[in-house]
Structures are given as structure tokens and as C-alpha cells.
Amino acid sequence: MAYERALYFAVENEYEEIRRHNEADLEARRSAVYEAVPEIREIDDEIHSAGLSIVNLAVQSPKDMNQRLAALRDHQKSLQIRRKTLLLENGFDADELSMRYMCERCKDTGVSDHKPCECYRRRLIMKAFEKSNLSQQLRNQSFKTFDYSLYSQEIDPQFGVSPYNAIHNIVTVCKQFVADFDRTDKNLLFWGESGLGKTFLSTCIAKELIKEGYSVIYETTYQIVSRLEDYKFKRGDDMESLKTQAQRLYESDLLILDDLGAEFSTAYTNAALFDILNSRLIANKKTIINTNLSMKELADRYSERVISRIMGSYQILQFIGEDLRLKTSVNAFGENK
Ligand SMILES: [Zn+2]
User: Fold this and answer.
1) Which phi-psi region, left, alpha or beta, contains residue 110 (left: φ > 0; alpha: ψ -120 to 50)?
2) Measured in angstroms, how far is the CA atom of residue 144 from the centroid of ligand 1?
3) How far is the CA of 150 from the centre of ligand 1 (A)?
4) Which candidate, 268, 169, 279, places its Cα nearest to that of 228?
């Protein structure tokens, strides 16, 4: 899988920025050292001119070249030892005048052994996290940190199953969704009260897929609708960016549409939502919908077309239990409301 091109450009720019910073950082340290110990500047000048002599010798290649090269190298070496001693004597680090890198392996080029460095891959993933609008949640939410103990093991008489078992089944479906992402034509609809982990699990799925190189966007339905309205009705300088954002709703590998039903519903917004959902289905782009509304409430709110589309191509997963945010001192599930 390959990320959007814009991500690669953004990462390349980051490396350029880092290298500029490294240069400026070294320059600042050098100035401070020269000011404190002027002799070191003289030594550096001498090392530099010895270097030039070595190059000249190599170009001219006189008869006694090897002897003179060896002498110059010895001279350089002793200068370097003197320089190091002076640095340490004056309270500096031995490598005070060396370039310092964020990544020693690739020296902040992003390439090591003719391959993208590990740090490059990490930066790319971080950029993809940012693009998904989930960077905050993605830092600490994952299948590994999912806390089943928050769900009651008592059987809920209404559903004949405990919230604990229900969520176990849902997590299994979520993991399978990730594993089969390229092969399945399945979409997911998470349905249940607020605070039962719908957004959390959507984030877990997003995280796994982004790490594998898929593009993921998370938006509340409210945000999507206002974005589309802006694009349709607003006129101004930011049209290009609005257009790009609107396009990404159609083109991302996974769209997480959070809080369906919380947006202000009009004929226009309904049509716009249907268009996104439908276009994604046709293009076999996966979508996860989160909603607090039941199928009946959804049917009352949206057109018949939207609902039959959803019923036909989404696996509907019901979240049951009590609002978990009331059980935890912190808002562990980061739901929208
Ligand atoms: Zn690196």
C-alpha cells in the first residue's frame, strides 16, 4: 500500500527542516566554542588548510607524495587530539563540534542502506495519523489498550448476552475487518449509546490500517456536512483546500463517519451523505459509521434510499451496557459527547 503523495512530500520537507536545524545548531555551538577558546578556531583553520594541502598533493602527485601525505595526516591527527583536549579542558563535550543527528543511522537523510530508514517509516505513519484527524487518540488507543473489564459480565435481560461478551464479539469482528481489509466488501455500523467504546474501537481499526499504509479519515457527520456545505455554498480563497478535503471523503481507503444523526439534517445534507456512502460503496472503499440512533430512528431521519443502502452493505454491531465514562475517572473512550 502506498500513502498519498502529499504525505511523502511532507516527510521530505521535515527532513530538510531537520537538516537545516542541525546545521544551525552546529554553527551556534561552534561560535560559542570559538568565543570561549580562540585557539580552537586556529586549530580548525590549520586542520582545514592541511586538508587542502592533501587534495593538492593528490592532484599534483609528486614523487614523494606518499611520504608527504603521511606527514600531513599525522599533523591533522595531532591537531585533532589537541582540539579534543582543549574542548574537554574547557568544559565542552568531545563531540561539541560534530554534527548531531536525530537519527544516527541515516544521519537525518531518511535513507540507510539504500532503503528508507526506520525513522522515515515512523515519520510517514505519524503524518498519516495527523491526516486522519485522529492523531491525539491514536497516541494511546489501540486494541492492546482496550479495557474489557469496564464491561459488565452480567447478562443483560433485554439482549440475552452480557455487555462483556457482546464487546468481545465486536472486537473479534473489528480485528477480522482489519485482517480482511483488502478482500472484504464489508462495512461496519456501530450502533449504541454514547460512551460504550464506538469511537475507541474505530480508532483502533484506524491505527492498524494506517500503520499498514492505508489512508484513513475520521470525521463527525457534523463536520462532514458543514464541510460539504462550505464547499457548495462558500466562495473564497480556500476553495482549493475545501475541494481537496471533500475529495478525501470519497477517496480515502477508510472513512470513519462518527456520530451519524448528530448533524443538522436537511434535504441537502441527506443527499450529500447518501452520495458519499453510495460512491464509496461503488468504488469498494470501506466505511465505518458510528451512531447513537436505532435503525428505526435512522429510517425516520434519512431517506429510504440511505437506509436500504446501509442495511444492505453494512454489518451492524450493537454496543450494549452502561456509559463507561461514568465508570472511569478519565474519559477513556474519547467519544464526542
Ligand atoms: Zn533514520
Assistant:
1) left
2) 27
3) 40
4) 268
The candidate with the shortest Cα–Cα distance to 239, out of 251, 229, 247, 231, is 231
Q: How would you write the pLDDT of the chain (337 residues) with one tens digit per residue?
A: 567 788 899 999 999 999 999 999 999 999 999 999 999 999 999 999 999 999 998 888 888 888 999 999 999 999 999 999 999 999 999 999 999 999 999 999 999 999 999 899 888 888 888 888 887 777 778 898 888 888 999 999 888 899 999 999 999 999 999 999 999 888 999 999 888 999 999 999 999 999 888 889 998 888 888 877 777 776 666 777 777 778 888 889 999 999 998 887 788 888 888 889 999 999 999 999 999 988 888 888 887 777 888 888 999 999 998 776 656 544 444 444 3
CA 122 to ligand 1 centroid distance, Å: 9
- The cell numbers describing 150, all together, are 469496564
For the entire predicted model, the pTM comes to 0.72
Residue 104 CA to ligand 1 center (angstroms) comes to 7
